[in-house]
From TrEMBL:
<feature type="transmembrane region" description="Helical">
    <location>
        <begin position="224"/>
        <end position="243"/>
    </location>
</feature>
<feature type="transmembrane region" description="Helical">
    <location>
        <begin position="12"/>
        <end position="35"/>
    </location>
</feature>
<keyword id="KW-0297">G-protein coupled receptor</keyword>
<feature type="transmembrane region" description="Helical">
    <location>
        <begin position="263"/>
        <end position="281"/>
    </location>
</feature>
<feature type="transmembrane region" description="Helical">
    <location>
        <begin position="125"/>
        <end position="149"/>
    </location>
</feature>
<protein>
    <recommendedName>
        <fullName>G-protein coupled receptors family 1 profile domain-containing protein</fullName>
    </recommendedName>
</protein>
<dbReference type="InterPro" id="IPR017452">
    <property type="entry name" value="GPCR_Rhodpsn_7TM"/>
</dbReference>
<keyword id="KW-1133">Transmembrane helix</keyword>
<keyword id="KW-0807">Transducer</keyword>
<dbReference type="GO" id="GO:0005886">
    <property type="term" value="C:plasma membrane"/>
</dbReference>
<dbReference type="GO" id="GO:0004930">
    <property type="term" value="F:G protein-coupled receptor activity"/>
</dbReference>
<keyword id="KW-0812">Transmembrane</keyword>
<feature type="transmembrane region" description="Helical">
    <location>
        <begin position="47"/>
        <end position="67"/>
    </location>
</feature>
<feature type="domain" description="G-protein coupled receptors family 1 profile">
    <location>
        <begin position="25"/>
        <end position="276"/>
    </location>
</feature>
<dbReference type="InterPro" id="IPR000276">
    <property type="entry name" value="GPCR_Rhodpsn"/>
</dbReference>
<keyword id="KW-0472">Membrane</keyword>
<feature type="transmembrane region" description="Helical">
    <location>
        <begin position="184"/>
        <end position="203"/>
    </location>
</feature>
Length: 313
């Protein structure tokens, strides 16, 4: 069997196995955060809710499309608008998620160590609400132009999963900006501010009069660090490979590495809801109770069948 065909089969089954539990987990976490008044009003959950919504959009669109492509076709004719929408969701929302989480890693420092900056409604509007709104507008306008209103003519590759080929990436200035500002810089921000949060957390924990206050922010810190680990493990290798190509690395020398890096980058959307559930202890307990209730019901139905089988014997 050809190694490319085998790799396509492996991707199909891994994405399929993870997709359904990931969608269920996304719905559970979103409903939990949105319908609980205290949770959806908590400032540190606002960006997480947006990221989960982006994940859910990707999970119900591009992942089923990829599964259909991997399972049925190598050559799949699609319309231009369909390919443009696929490309925008596939890459535009993926980069939007990274940029928003980079802001979240900065905002965690404000929420934990400088909460006075958010003491008034006006401060919250300018420091908490305005930055993610501006970042969303920037990403939607930027990638809306790339995929829907380019200054050149995009083409279509029916042999690729994401079938749109954007002509704007042929421009060196644009590619440099998109790689450094939209990809590399957010990852560097995540790395720097995550390490800084760990150091500041350790320092605060050693200060006796700060321990009581620190307990309030422990879950917030665990959530940030776990999501940071997810991005740096699965997303940063692909970004680093793109940056190396931009610096002149020949594509024929590391094509397999780039292929595997792209594969791992798609796992972020699938693992993200599971990482978000880690600090939500109440939700985890509810899910455990639901699972235990199902197991008890199954055992109740199984025991009478066993007894009747023994009596007939």
């Amino acid at each position: 069997m050809d190694i490319d065909v085998l790799f396509r089969i492996i991707k199909f089954w891994i994405y399929l196995i993870l997709l359904i539990p990931s969608i269920i987990c996304s719905l559970f976490v979103l409903c939990y955060l949105l319908f609980d008044r205290n949770l959806h009003r908590a400032l540190h959950n606002h960006v997480i809710i947006i990221l989960l919504l982006i994940c859910l959009i990707c999970q119900v669109t591009i992942y089923p499309w990829m599964l259909y492509f991997y399972n049925n076709h190598i050559y799949w004719p699609r319309s231009y608008i369909f390919c443009s929408i696929w490309g925008f969701i596939d890459w535009g929302l993926y980069i939007t998620q990274i940029i928003l989480f980079a802001w979240a890693s900065i905002e965690r420092h404000i929420l934990i160590f400088h909460d006075r900056w958010l003491s008034t409604r006006r401060k919250r509007i300018f420091i908490h609400y305005l930055p993610p709104i501006l970042l969303l507008l920037y990403c939607f306008i930027f990638y809306g132009i790339v995929y829907f209103f380019p200054f050149c003519v995009n083409s279509i590759n029916y042999y690729a999963a994401a079938c749109i080929v954007c002509c704007t990436y042929n421009n060196n200035v644009f590619s440099l900006w998109e790689t450094i500002v939209n990809q590399l810089l957010p990852h560097l921000i995540i790395i720097i501010f995550s390490i800084a949060l760990i150091l500041r957390a350790l320092w605060q924990n050693h200060r006796v009069h700060q321990r009581i206050q620190w307990r309030k922010h422990r879950k917030m810190t665990i959530q940030l660090l776990s999501i940071s680990f997810l991005y740096l493990t699965f997303s940063f290798p692909n970004t680093f490979m793109i940056f190396l190509y931009l610096c002149g690395l020949p594509s024929n020398t590391s094509g397999d590495v780039k292929k595997y890096a792209e594969f791992f980058s798609y796992l972020i959307i699938l693992f993200f809801p599971f990482v978000c559930i880690l600090p939500l202890s109440k939700l985890r307990n509810k899910i455990r109770k639901i699972l235990l209730c199902r197991k008890r019901r199954q055992t109740r139905f199984i025991r009478p069948e066993i007894l009747t089988a023994r009596q007939t014997k």
